[in-house]
Amino acid sequence: YQAKSGGGSVGWYDSARDAASTNQLALLAELRAALAVDDQLVLALQPAVDLKTGDATGVEALIRWKHPRRGPLAPGEFISVIESSDLLAPFTQYVIDRALATAADWALNGLLVPISVNVSARSLLDPRLPADVAELLRRHQVPAHRLVLEITETVMMSELAVIDEVLAGLRATGVQLAVDDFGTGFSSMTLLTRVPVDELKVDREFVAGMVDSPEAAAIVRTTVDLARELGLRVVAEGVETADQRAALTALGCTSAQGYHFFRPMPPEKVLGVLRALRDNAQARIVPLRADG
Ligand code: C2E
Ligand code: MG
Ligand code: MG
Ligand code: MG
Fold first, then answer.
1. Which atom of ligand 1 is nearest to the CA of 119?
2. Distance of CA 59 to the CA centre of its chain
3. What residues pack around ion ligand 4 (CB closer than 5 A)?
4. Which amino acid residue places its CA nearest to atom 30 of ligand 1?
5. Nearest residue by C-alpha to atom 38 in ligand 1
6. What letters, b where the CB count within 10 A reaches 16 and e where it falls short, cover 264-292?
7. Ligand 4 center to residue 103 CA distance, Å?
8. Which of 123, 171, 172, 204 has the lowest CB atom count within 10 Å?
9. 210-262 pLDDT, tens per residue?
10. ipTM more than 0.95?
11. What is the pTM of this model?
């Protein structure tokens, strides 16, 4: 190996790497503590809406860390640290537990809306995951079909044998499976032939490009058509503008999520939003009928 960076900066490089790993170790210790306390790791919740009726089709749970000193941290700043540690299983359980508690509360209020949780592909290497999920569903008395596990396809193709087994176990619990960021992995199509899934989420990169780029628009259209052909739900992610919304509606996309509709919000706000969406959707049925 020959160092290519100028100035023979090997010493500098090493100390930077040491600093980075020291920081990771600190983060990990703090995460371990945060998982034990009540209010540092919180869910931000983002509804997805039906493009025809405006009603909520589901709500996605997105983890946030209210770090006492570092300030609020987005998942991109700490998920990878969790993924390479022994905290992954407890963390995944923590998020599903919180999500199910929230969904149980909605159900008490008459709102039977599915909740979606992101599951690291690395969690699919854990053979205990299906039993853990089943136990959490039992504890919260939430029907399995009201929990959607979002999986990012890219990493799913490695270690296929174990992953196939865990996915089969999850399916057996009755939870729904969604492919997150669909179209960004290398093997989306192969994946669909191996694992029965319920939902495709169109990556926001393609949604962002679809108004100006014929290529992005073609990818979105193809994904919507594929979902229709296979009888899957399709949700467009990262919808930010009315133009994107109109383009998605024109392609026959049924459901959308993004800042144009709602930013991720604290759990205590969601119940009111879900009620309002349902009431508006029901009110809309009347004038439609009156117009014939
Ligand atoms: P994702 O599952 O694809 O989630 C969508 C991301 O896009 C979220 O970022 C969300 O806040 C953001 N977003 C939503 N609408 C818009 C929009 O209109 N425009 C733009 N620019 N962004 C939008 P976030 O919360 O930072 O999460 C990033 C990723 O971290 C997620 O991507 C997911 O892969 C992962 N993640 C989040 N929560 C969890 C978790 O509890 N467990 C695991 N394992 N991963 C998580
Ligand atoms: Mg997601
Ligand atoms: Mg996504
Ligand atoms: Mg993403």
1. 44
2. 9
3. 181
4. 75
5. 62
6. bbebeebbebbeebbeebeeeeeeeeeee
7. 23
8. 172
9. 999 999 999 999 999 999 999 999 999 999 999 999 999 999 999 999 999 99
10. yes
11. 0.92
